[in-house]
Amino acid sequence: MSFICLILSGVALLINGLALLGRIPPRDSGTLNLLIGGLQLILATLIAVTAADDPARLLSAAGVVLFGLTYTYVGLNSLFDLGSAGVGWFCSLVAALAVVYAVSNLAADPFSAVLWSSWAVLWTLFFLLLALGRSAVTAYTGWATLLTSQLTTTVPAILGLNGAWPSGWGSAAAAAVLIALLFTAAGFLARRNGRAAVVLPEPEHTPAAKAPGPAPAELPRPAQEPAPAAV
Question: What does the record list as coiled-coil region(s) (predicted)?
Answer without folding.
Answer: none
